[in-house]
């Protein structure tokens, strides 16, 4: 059995088939529902928040909540689109 050099740890991991972080992640970041729909929800939430509050901080917070804020906005103001 051949003992590997200490500097070849990355090569060994690569040969064994381990993937890098996020390589097989098909859901995106996960904070917004992931994928295209999560991104659309985050952008829509930020736009709706900006229209109501005119605040970048609130737009970022509401973008994090994504579709939850969009649905809240729809229930409160009766509109989905800004």
Q: Features of this protein?
A:
82 residues, mainly alpha, elongated, 57% helix
Overall pLDDT confidence: 77
Structural class: mainly alpha
What number of domains? 1
Main beta-sheet annotation: none
General form: elongated
Helix content: 55-70%
Unreliable parts: none
Distance between the termini: 66 Å
The beta-strand count equals: 0
Order of helices and strands: HHHH
Proportion of strand residues: under 5%
Number of helices: 4
What's the Cα radius of gyration? 21 Å
Give a description of the structure:
With 82 residues, this protein is mainly alpha-helical. The protein is built from four helices and no strands. It has one domain. The model has no long low-confidence stretch (mean pLDDT 77).
Question: Can you describe this structure in just a few lines?
Answer:
The protein has 82 residues and is mainly α. It has four helices and no strands.
Walk me through the topology:
Blueprint: H1 9-15, H2 35-53, H3 56-65, H4 67-77
Helix pairs in contact: 2-3, 2-4
